[in-house]
Amino acid sequence: MLRLAVVLAEVIQAFSAPENAVRMDEARDNACNDMGKMLQFVLPVATQIQQEVIKAYGFSCDGEGVLKFARLVKSYEAQDPEIASLSGKLKALFLPPMTLPPHGPASGSSVAAS
Question: What protein family does this chain belong to (predicted)?
């Protein structure tokens, strides 16, 4: 049985390798915190870094392999706190921090009838 937490830890470690850190920094600089540009510049680099690690564990070395890996991780997140934690760390490496708009009556989003 594949030890998913080990693979996740290896993927996270790959992001801190000097050459990958430079690639990610360049991609983030090009994206300028714009979500559309993040998808254009950062996501492909992050996908390539993941592919380089997970291919050693039998996942195909393409986008489909990364999607299968992501689905497998997602399926275990609720059952295994270690996998959930590692998954969160991985996502934080390539997704910008998201600020959620305020919700509820205090947010001023209600419209008075006129």
Answer: Belongs to the UPF0456 family.
